[in-house]
Design brief:
This protein is an all-alpha fold. It folds into two domains: 53 residues, no CATH class; 54 residues, no CATH class. Helices cover 60% and strands 0% of the residues. The protein is built from six helices and no strands. The longest helix has 26 residues.
Length: 107
């Protein structure tokens, strides 16, 4: 019984570890762009998740987090508005380094 618990514990630790996937097929565009798997390779997800928790007694940090959430919501509503207006070509121009030609991928 103890051996099975040890194996389960080891297996759970392996599941929590971030693995660096070299296959571009299995990576989403976000993972390829941010290189998230490479940055956090070998890190324990449990520890990473704990870093996102805000202490209940830290009012200043709570205020900052609420402000960031408000800004992100406004930005996202701007993106939705941009799509509603049919301005999808704008993303290609924002991603371009050439003033007279749009990029092949959107921003």
């Amino acid at each position: 019984m103890n051996e099975a618990e040890i194996r389960d514990s080891e297996y759970e630790c392996q599941l929590n570890k971030v693995h660096d996937s070299v296959s571009l097929v299995t990576q989403t565009p976000w993972l390829r762009h941010t290189r998230w798997e490479r940055i956090f390779a070998g890190k324990d997800m449990k520890e990473l998740v704990e870093l996102t928790e805000i202490p209940k007694d830290d009012d200043e940090l709570r205020y900052i987090c609420d402000s960031v959430e408000r800004v992100l919501r406004r930005c996202f509503s701007g993106v939705l508005d941009y799509n509603d207006r049919g301005w999808s070509l704008l993303g290609f121009w924002l991603n371009s380094v050439d003033r007279i030609k749009e990029n092949t991928k959107p921003f």
